[in-house]
Specification:
The complex is a heterodimer of chains A (201) and B (213).
Chain A (H helix, E strand, L loop, with lengths): L2 H13 L4 H13 L1 H18 L8 H10 L12 H13 L2 H20 L14 H24 L2 H44 L1
Helix pairs in contact in A: 1-2, 1-3, 2-3
Chain B lengths: L22 H15 L5 H21 L2 H18 L10 H19 L1 H5 L3 H18 L5 H12 L4 H12 L4 H8 L3 H21 L5
Helix pairs in contact in B: 1-2, 2-3, 2-4, 3-4, 4-9, 6-7, 8-10, 9-10
Chain lengths: 201, 213
């Protein structure tokens, strides 16, 4: 038996559960190996010492504190039938305040969009479900809505003011440019005349 | 030739559990958990009463502080309360599940308070050593009961967390090697190796404090 093998079996030996050949081999190793014998002595000594140690008792008020801070009984977790899981569970989940609030906000948002886009709710007829008609209706409404939005944008006071100011600035920029171009045109006209007079000389 | 003086009491093997951890009381744990989950009024109280001592003892031996052990015990039961549904009776014993939960909290606590321990005043440590030495001089190295408990506490604090938890779980809480392996998530061989090293280290510390072992 090696020292490493002894280390694994030493716990069982100290516990008194080692039997037969293993026990004999271990004892013969201990007789010939002083390091392992020292280890076995220490291990056995400490286990014997710990047996004399008084247990650590919790103070009485600790139990009261634990029970006081936590509810005395766990919430019931009854087993639910498959029918309840299929119907009751999802319905109950949907009836949670946050879901109900979310659904209400969605309905409100759609109704506001419909009102803005002048979509009036009315009774559906089979003819309304014709794809061509639906497409034509969507196309028509989209164009109407776009035109209405553009008209609204153009009529905004702020937009008109910005546009008029931009126009003023553009005009002011063009005025000096036109003056300068006139002067350039005049000077170019005079230069050819001077050239011809020099040639004449 | 070296002779090993192993205490005579250890030669005759006796079951390590004073009350005997039989199949009946293991079933009782599982039944208690079932009753808790079914919402029975007294079941939670019974469960807390039954296991407070074990949880407190592990926490106290590991931290060496009554106040910290009490707080940690409360935290453990709070976590048990929240996670009781995740316990599966078929997958292992409730005691192992509870001890693993306690150990995880202790390791978290150990990491969290590492800086505090590093800055602990030298005077406090010297004071503890002086008290221990004075007590030993009165008793001539032969200790038992509460005094032995205090000396053991001082010795345990000198061990690394790995060795300390293994010694606590085996020698003080008397868990089986298989159960300790499950709690620590290491092979049984590693548990035995750590146990030998922990006990040998503890023997050296106790001998340095003139405890006769």
């Amino acid at each position: 038996m090696t020292c490493a093998e002894l280390e694994i079996l030493l716990c069982d030996y100290v516990d008194g559960t080692l039997r037969g050949e293993e026990k004999t081999a271990l004892e013969s190793h201990l007789a010939g190996c002083s390091a392992c014998a020292e280890l076995a002595k220490d291990v056995a000594g400490v286990t014997a010492f710990i047996e004399t140690v008084a247990p650590a008792e919790p103070p009485a008020e600790l139990l009261t504190r634990i029970l006081h801070e936590l509810p005395t009984a766990r919430p019931a977790t009854k087993k639910q039938s498959w029918w309840w899981k299929l119907t009751g569970g999802p319905v109950q989940a949907l009836l949670q305040p946050r879901y109900v609030m979310g659904m209400a906000m969605t309905v409100l948002s759609f109704s506001m969009i419909a009102r803005f886009a002048h979509i009036e709710p009315r009774q559906l007829r089979p003819a309304d479900l014709d794809p061509v008609k639906i497409w034509a209706s969507i196309d028509d409404r989209t164009h109407r809505m776009w035109d209405r939005t553009m008209k609204y944008y153009d009529n905004l006071r702020l937009v008109i003011e910005i546009q008029s100011r931009l126009k003023e600035w553009t005009d002011q920029d063009q005025a000096p440019n036109t003056g300068a171009s006139k002067q350039q045109a005049e000077s170019s006209r005079q230069k050819p005349e001077a050239g011809t007079s020099e040639k004449k000389r | 030739m070296a002779t090993v003086a192993i205490p005579a009491a250890k030669w005759n093997w006796v079951p390590p559990y004073p009350q005997g951890r039989t199949a009946n009381n293991l079933d009782a744990d599982a039944q208690l958990v079932e009753r808790c989950l079914a919402g029975q009024d007294t079941a939670w109280e019974d469960l807390v009463k039954l296991h407070t001592r074990r949880v407190y003892s592990i926490c106290y031996r590991f931290t060496n502080s009554d106040a910290e052990a009490q707080d940690l015990t409360q935290d453990v039961f709070l976590r048990v309360f929240k996670n009781l549904k995740s316990f599966r009776a078929g997958e292992g014993l409730f005691v192992v599940w509870l001890t693993r939960l306690t150990r995880n909290l202790l390791i978290d606590h150990y990491r969290r308070t590492r800086m505090d321990r590093a800055t602990e005043s030298i005077e406090d440590q010297v004071k503890v050593l002086e008290e221990t030495t004075a007590m030993l001089s009165r008793t001539d190295g032969m200790l038992a009961g509460r005094e032995a408990s205090e000396v053991l506490q001082a010795g345990l604090q000198k061990l690394s967390p790995e060795l300390r938890e293994t010694v606590i779980l085996r020698d003080l809480e008397e868990l089986e090697y298989r159960e300790i392996a499950q709690v620590l998530n290491v092979p049984e061989g590693t548990v035995k190796s750590r146990l030998n090293r922990g006990r040998a280290e503890l023997a050296r510390v106790l001998r340095r404090h003139k405890v006769r072992i």
